Structure formats: C-alpha cells, structure tokens
Amino acid sequence: MEVLALTLVTLMALLPPTQPCSSEMNKVKDLLEVNCTGQALSTVPPDLPADTGILLLSDNRLESLSTTAFLSLTQLQDIDLANNGLVALHTGALLLSLKELTLSHNALSALPILEGLPALTHLAVAHNSLETLAPGAFRTVPQLQNLDLRGNKMQQLPQEAFAGLKALKELDLSDNLLKELPKELLQDLQKLETLWLSGNQLQTLPTDFFPKGHLFMYVFLTENPWHCDCDLHYLQTWIQKNADIVYQPERGLEETKVEVAPEKVLCHSPAEHRQKPIIRFKLNCSIMEDVDEEGGDEYNYGEETTEKATMSTFPPHPYIPKEHTTMPCAITSSCLPTLTTTRSPLTRPSLSTSCTPTLSPNTLLVMLTSIRTPST
C-alpha cells in the first residue's frame, strides 16, 4: 500500500498544476467570459460560473466531449473548442442560447449530429479530417449564417449537403480535395454572399451551378486545376459577367490579403494553355460567339477586363490561420468597406461600409476577416 501511495503522489507531482479559469466581462458582448485556454484539461471544469456567456476551452485535451457538460450554463452563447485533439462530440443536450461553436483544428472524421442547438449561427469545423457530409446535415440548425469547412479532406459532396440553410451568408469550402460539385449544391442558399472554393481539385463546374439571379459579394475560385475546354464555357461566361466579385486570397505568415482578381483564375490544362486567365481565353467551340474569325490564337492578349482593386490586409489569428468573413453590403463603385476591430475572445471583426458617391470604381478596398477567428 505504501508503494502504491508513493507512486500516486509521484504521478500527481509530475502533472502540470491546474490553474483556475480566469473570468472577466466581455465589453463588446456584455457577457461573462471564462478563459480556460491551455490548461491540459481532459474534462470540462465542473465549477464554472452559472452566468458564463463565453467559454474558451481551446488548446486542451478534450478528446471526447458531450454537450451535456454545458447544460448548467443557461446563458452560454460562444464555445471555443479548437486545438483539443477532439475525435468525438456528442450533442443532444438542449442549449437554447448557444450561437457560436468553434471546433477547428481537431481530429473529427465526421461532422457531429447537430442536435439541441436551435440558435446556432456560426459553426467552424476547419482543419479537421472530414471526408464528406451527409445529405441534410444542417437541417437541425436552420439559423446558421456562417459555416467554415476549410482545410478538410472532402472529395465530394451530396447535392443536399446544405439543404435548409436559407439564412447562410458565408460558406467556406476552400483547401479541401473537391474534384466536382453537384449542380444543385447552392439551390437552398438564398442569402449566400460569400463562397470560398479556392484551393480544391476542381476542373470544371456544372452549367447553372450558380443560381440564376443570385447576387454574390465575394466568390473565390483560384488555386484549382481548371481544364480549359468547351466544358468550361459556363464558368468562363459567369466570370466575365461577374468579374467585380471574383476575388483572390493571398495568405502569408503574418497576414492575408484579398483583391478583386478575375484574371487570376487560371487554366491548368491542357498544357499549351496552362497559366492563361480563363476570363480571356477563347474556346474553339460552336457555342462561342467570339471565335477568332481568322482562326488565329485562341487566347486574347488584349487589355485586362477588370482593374485590380487595391490590396488590403488583416491580422492573423493565434491558432486559426488566415481567416475571413462577409461584407454586409453590395459591392458597388460607391461603397468603401472599412474594418471595425472591437473584438474580444470569440467575437468576430465586422465590416461596416461608408458609401461615398465620389469614389471611382478602381478604388475599392476590401478587408475580410472570419467567423473562424476566436481571438485570445
């Protein structure tokens, strides 16, 4: 017995000391914010204040978790569970006030069943191991406005993957392995403003992929191996008609820049047309009206169709790199977006616009930050 007791004492001495979670009022949201970041926790602390509104649990060891652990926190609106090695999240407990849930940088191979979260508006599951989504996976969270699925392993999606998300404004599918997308994927997304498809394996998009009459604010299409043949006619035409909303992200270690850059959506194949802008590529197809009458070069080296917007930058996030969010107004030549950075943990920067009729179309500045960025 003495040997066993001595062993236990030794093991306890080797464990890092548990620090109590700090708490303070979040001045932006007027909620009590409890910070339990980086304390090697394997379970949710049982003695959290009953009026906790924002709970930061990132950088711990919560590999398996049930939302029943939060039932006593009736005012809880934001939970950050990033960087926990999370492999399983069990939902079902009714959390009526929860609006934001961050699950990024974990080890989830399947999307948790989203039950008991009727008020959820922001969901970040970036940088996990998701391979696909179930049809109607988000029907239980119809209030969702921002969905971040960046940096997973998805190769394909069912046509009803986002069914029921009529309030969704931003959808990030960038940096996955998507090879093709179903024609009906966006049909239910009536309020979608920002769509990220950059950094996938897309070679073409089906005809009428973008719903007719739908007005986007930002669409990201770069870093895909687009195959420039007659099957790409639909995408080329769409880019030509919507050149002012086709953006390019440039991610760096310290900042992320975005700019209006339809000419940066490039052909990857066939080899003779590699690195040529899709927007000015001339296809030798009967459906094309502007085929070179003299049968000359298939590529138009004339003036660029769209002027580049001035690059803008935004700061990185300590554990979720290079993020972005939507702008709440239409892009016009008379609107100049500005960044509002009154942010505390799990409150995201918002964009407000000040419209001035004197601005020229070539002075659009754009700053994008993301729902995915719970700050420290």
Automatic annotation (TrEMBL):
GO-annotated cellular components: plasma membrane
Record keywords, A-Z: Leucine-rich repeat, Repeat, Signal
PROSITE patterns per UniProt: LRR
InterPro entries per the UniProt record, alphabetical: Cys-rich_flank_reg_C, Leu-rich_rpt, Leu-rich_rpt_typical-subtyp, LRR_dom_sf, LRR_TM_domain-containing
Signal peptide extent: 1-20
Residue stretches making up the LRRCT domain: 224-286
Protein origin, superkingdom: Eukaryota
SUPFAM superfamilies, per database record: L domain-like
UniProt key word Signal: yes
Protein name: Platelet glycoprotein Ib alpha chain
Lineage: Eukaryota, Metazoa, Chordata, Craniata, Vertebrata
Gene designation: GP1BA
